[in-house]
Every structure is written in structure tokens, then in C-alpha cells.
Design goal:
The protein contains 7 helices and 13 strands. It has 252 residues and is of the alpha+beta class. The protein folds into 2 domains: 110 residues, no CATH class; 83 residues, no CATH class. A 6-stranded mixed β-sheet has the order 10-12-8-1-7-13. Strands 5-4-3-2-6 form a 5-stranded antiparallel β-sheet. It has a two-stranded antiparallel sheet with strand order 9-11. The protein binds zinc ion.
């Protein structure tokens, strides 16, 4: 067993090691859905403003014309409100599978409509995303050290708008000050402004202290290190406009 390592074998081990190291410098963060957003708008029947998804979609046919509504329920008085999704559309203009999904209250379509910000804007309500998500951040230990940049893919399970700065604080376990400093130093490279709200997948890179020539966080007042595993977060909705009541025609 005192055989010399064969050159081919040596090469393949080196390649494997490189692969492992390469893999190790990638991290996946996932913004996971924990609840659906509330629809915020004044209820005509009570002082409440928060509405939750009922899980139901209503389809009405009049000849070849269809109306499709998403049904929401007032969290205070249980009044049902109808949000128009399609109004007087010809039956042939809808994908048959889409129509079947509407008729069967397909949970994926209910979810899609309930999280649809443009449907909300069109119908004069806003989405409150508070408590709808958690960040699952699998960041390798020592991610902030070493010369090889760490690439982080941030995936969104639901289109919740989250401030980029907040994602970085949660994912890297750093203070706001530390995140701002690292972005300022070019150690964190992110394709969005720190105060922008991301709501779809993007990638960022974290460059190690050695490569950037700066020491990792030495400020004792700030939490250092890189936590791994699941970290939670609570989304903050956009600033609330004065809620308007649902149109009377929207009563189910
Ligand atoms: Zn109500």
C-alpha cells in the first residue's frame, strides 16, 4: 500500500477539492411564505380594514361572457367582498385550464391572486405583508472570511417586498451599520440599492476580508460572525394610504 499516487488520481482529487470549495462558496437564501398578505381597505359594514383570502373564487357566466371575482373576507365582521379579476370577458379569451382552476378554487391561483400587487392597486386596496414571510438563510460558516467571494442566491417564494438592507442584516446576522459599511467598502456587491425593496430572485456576492484588504468586523458593539440555519423576519408593508371603502357593487 505504499504505492505512489498516480498523476491522474492526484489531478482528479484536486478537481474534486476545487469543486467542493466552489460549491462551498455558494449560499441559498429563501424568502419563505408563512401566511398570505392581508388586503387593507375600509369595510362598508364595520370599522375594520383588514381582509383575508377566503380561499374562494367566484365565476359567473352570462352566455359566452364571464365575470371572475376573488372573494375576500373582512377579518372583523366576516363580510365577503368581491374583487373583480375578469369582467365580461369572452369565455374563449381564458385558457381552459385557467377557467377550471377558477371554478375549482385552485389554491395556487387563489394564492397568486391574493399576492398580486397590481390587482390590489387596480382595485384600490393595499397588501399588508407583515408576518407573511421568514428568511431561511443557509450561509456557510466563515462566509465573511477567505479570498473566494461567496455568491448568495436569494429566492422569493412569494412576491413580498423586502428592503434589501433588511435581507442582508438577517441573512448575514449583521447590524445595519455593518451592512452599510460592507456595501460601502465593496465587500458586499448587490445589484439593488440598500433601501430598495426586492420582491423577486436576485444574486449578491460577499467578498472576504482578505480579498478586500480589510479586517472583518472588529467593532465590538456590533454582532459579528455568520449564523447559519433558519432566521426569521417580519415584513413591513408600504406606508398606508387612507383606506377607501369597497364599492357597493362589490358586496357578494
Ligand atoms: Zn367588516
Amino acid at each position: 500500500m505504499s504505492q505512489e499516487p498516480r498523476p491522474g488520481r492526484e489531478r482528479s482529487w484536486r478537481a474534486l477539492k476545487a469543486t467542493i470549495m466552489h460549491t462551498d462558496r455558494k449560499a441559498l437564501w429563501a424568502v419563505r411564505q408563512s401566511a398570505l398578505p392581508a388586503a387593507v381597505r375600509a369595510c362598508p359594514d364595520c370599522p375594520g380594514t383588514r381582509h383575508r383570502a377566503s380561499g374562494r373564487i367566484r365565476v359567473n357566466a352570462s352566455g359566452k361572457l364571464l365575470d371572475v371575482w376573488l372573494l375576500l373576507i373582512c377579518a372583523t365582521c366576516d363580510r365577503t367582498s368581491k374583487v373583480p379579476v375578469h369582467e365580461r370577458v369572452h369565455v374563449s379569451s381564458l385558457e381552459p385550464s385557467r377557467l377550471v382552476a377558477y371554478e375549482n378554487n385552485d389554491p395556487a391561483v387563489v394564492r397568486e391572486l391574493t399576492t398580486n400587487a397590481s390587482l390590489a392597486a387596480k382595485n384600490g386596496y393595499r397588501l399588508d405583508w407583515a408576518g407573511t414571510w421568514t428568511l431561511e438563510a443557509r450561509t456557510p460558516l466563515h462566509a465573511l472570511d477567505g479570498p473566494i467571494p461567496l455568491t448568495v442566491h436569494v429566492g422569493f417564494e412569494l412576491p413580498v417586498p423586502v428592503r434589501v438592507e433588511r435581507l442582508l442584516m438577517l441573512g448575514l446576522g449583521l447590524s445595519r451599520t455593518a451592512v452599510r459599511r460592507m456595501v460601502g467598502d465593496g465587500r458586499i456587491r448587490v445589484p439593488l440599492a440598500l433601501d430598495a425593496k426586492a420582491h423577486r430572485d436576485f444574486e449578491l456576492t460577499v467578498h472576504g476580508g482578505a480579498a478586500a484588504g480589510t479586517a472583518p468586523d472588529a467593532d465590538p458593539a456590533e454582532p459579528a460572525g455568520t449564523p447559519s440555519g433558519v432566521r426569521g423576519g417580519v415584513g413591513h408593508g408600504a406606508r398606508q394610504a387612507a383606506p377607501r371603502p369597497w364599492p357597493h357593487s362589490a358586496t357578494a
